[in-house]
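Q: I have 158 residues here and want to know how they pack in 3D. Can you give me a structure?
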Amino acid sequence: MQLVRQSDLINRKFVRKNSLATIGVFLTFIFSTAIADQLPKIDIQIAEQNYRVELAATLSERRKGLMYRSSLLSNGGMLLVYPNARDHRVWMKNMKIPLKVYWIDASFRVVHIQSLQPCENARCPAFGANQKSRFILELKDRQHTIGVGDLVVGISDL
């Protein structure tokens, strides 16, 4: 009889432990989604196209970027804002969607464009413009009319 009770106790602990783990994963998902909804958004214009983008201005916001997102609005995206112009880089680890990425210099001009695919490998490469940029704009990978040299309007106060 004692063995049955110990077995029941072990099963209850196992169920409780797994339930807590499941709740933890769920709360992490809800929290990360809520953070994404809390990032400030701004309207910008490039090549006569309007975009509503989230601002990622802190190191942790830039590191997370658009990771784990399963979709983006056609004119939505994220603007990574850096305190200084440098050769800033991005990677596609934990990305679910392909992106069109634009590097923007301190004069608010597009200096480099690259289409990037999600990376499912343990090691993912970093991509950069090989020149100084102060902003990186991540948009859904589709046909945009944005070209190198285009002026980005709406970010001069950042």
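Q: Anything worth noting?
A: Residues 3 and 124 are 50 Å apart (CA to CA). The longest helix spans residues 2-38.
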